Amino acid sequence: DEVPSVKGIPFIQKIHNVEAIEKMYDEFEVRDKDVIIMTYPKSGTHWMIDIISLIYSNGDPSWIKSVPAWKRFPWIEMKNGFELIKNKEDPRFLTSHLPVHLFPKSYFSSKAKMIYIARNPRDVIVSYYHFINPFALDSSWSAFENFFESFLRGNVVYGSWFDHIKGWLSMRNSEKFLFLTYEELHQDLKVSVEKICRFLRKKLSEEEISSVLENASFQVMEKHRLENNESIEYLRRNQVVLMRKGICGEWKNYFTVAQMETFNKLYQEKMEGLDQDLFPWNQC
Ligand code: A3P
């Protein structure tokens, strides 16, 4: 099968609304009250979806327990998201993994708020490797070294990690854009949640914040996933694991010394000139 792509970015025919992605760039109307989660895949998207769901419900997890993430925060570029979004009332909660050059252009002139989560690309490779295997566009991806090579070339679904982060970082001085990292959430979830509350102008009591933290823990989230039927039939059938380990530094169990060196060299080349303090993963 031919792999469909839009402006150089590969997608998956079965799950993406490939025909609509290019049209959406011009036609999709982002509203001022929209709250958008933007990530490269496997960077903590579902974690952020649950955190923001909890912030808007003042820490009450019942919404999470009864509605799967893809219905609470539909992905604008997915087949199952498109219809849902049309009928939503403000404030709409949206998710996307699109690179900046494919994201609806109306966002840039709107007041919509966007939270971007970035994760150590080394851990993203490992998480993505486990996630993508069942979808494999390329059967050679069942071997880690092949997926690793494709990832470095940007020849994977949603394209290059480097282009994604560099593209979106151009927004970082905008007050409607919040840049956070997976590693930061790990290090101090409370501080991050408070930052997100300020950004979204939501005032929560100490008790409500505690409930957000409790319900956004890995273990409790896993439990909710089973209750709300997040592991939808399709994912289950294909053995897609949405939550594997949820740790920092798992790449060390996968990369060979040679792969580590190759990766570091490319990383330095691609990330040169960016403020390295933005990326706490360089310590882990
Ligand atoms: P691993 O595959 O390394 O376990 P996304 O939601 O963007 O697909 O990202 C999935 C990754 O986020 C998975 O990483 C998953 O375990 C991790 N994750 C999800 N919820 C988490 C939580 N509450 N705490 C830590 N990691 C979490």
UniProtKB/TrEMBL annotation:
Pfam family, one: Sulfotransfer_1
Major enzyme class: transferase
Transferase in keyword set: yes
Main location class: cytoplasm
Alphabetical UniProt keywords: Cytoplasm, Transferase
Domain Sulfotransferase: 32-274
GO cellular component, one term: cytoplasm
Gene3D superfamilies listed in its UniProt record: P-loop containing nucleotide triphosphate hydrolases
GO molecular function: sulfotransferase activity
Compartments, as annotated in UniProt: Cytoplasm
Documented EC number(s): 2.8.2.-
InterPro entries xref list: P-loop_NTPase, Sulfotransferase_dom
SUPFAM superfamilies: P-loop containing nucleoside triphosphate hydrolases
Similarity section: Belongs to the sulfotransferase 1 family.
Name of the protein described by the UniProt record: Sulfotransferase
